[in-house]
Amino acid sequence: xxxxxxxxxxxxxxxxxxxxxxxxxxxxxxxxxxxxxxxxxxxxxxxxxxxxxxxxxxxxxxxxxxxxxxxxxxxxxxxxxxxxxxxxxxxxxxxxxxxxxxxxxxxxxxxxxxxxxxxxxxxxxxxxxxxxxxxxxxxxxxxxxxxxxxxxxxxxxxxxxxxxxxxxxxxxxxxxxxxxxxxxxxxxxxxxxxxxxxxxxxxxxxxxxxxxxxxxxxxxxxxxxxxxxxxxxxxxxxxxxxxxxxxx
Length: 248
Ligand code: PEP
Prior knowledge:
With 248 residues, the chain is of the alpha/beta class. It has one domain: TIM Barrel, CATH 3.20.20.
């Protein structure tokens, strides 16, 4: 059996300021060492600060999105090469807020994941069903479709990505999937990854959706949950650190 090292990633969304971020990261750094991998995905404009603050530590940093294009006349976009230049280990792609508010299709998410990997930036590919889809019994179909487009696009590199299962109805709502509900979806995603890449047992699948210090340990104890993608609770050093500790 493969042992997967747990990974906890903070998604700051569109929060923060240079002063607040410095305080938050100082708190996180002071809590090391950690028994799992830790990263923060900051707004683009704070990546250089994060790089400077975290470079000498084992805490990694990343972006929340990346352009599918390599370069050119794409006003407002940020390329994978730019993320690479700033030392990003990760970038989120296909977060449900981008799928919903920026009309990102499965194909665009896949192209972004490919652009990131092409520059050595690991895409954290977010998948998840809406409440309506869950209630219609379509959860498996939806997440498998979202993931299969990315697997197809990445082809022989698919095993390099990280996957995050984030039920849309659990993001920022205070409503968490039960550990059993989350595990059920993680298991089917892992089976899909294993069938496609032969390396699914070694790939990390994170859970995201209102993870807090008081529910993290039970979620992370599930067989196929390899850590978390943490939104709101990643903005408070004490909460984020407690969640990181729950992972290992
Ligand atoms: C997220 O932004 O990916 C997320 C899971 O948010 P929250 O933890 O606030 O639900």
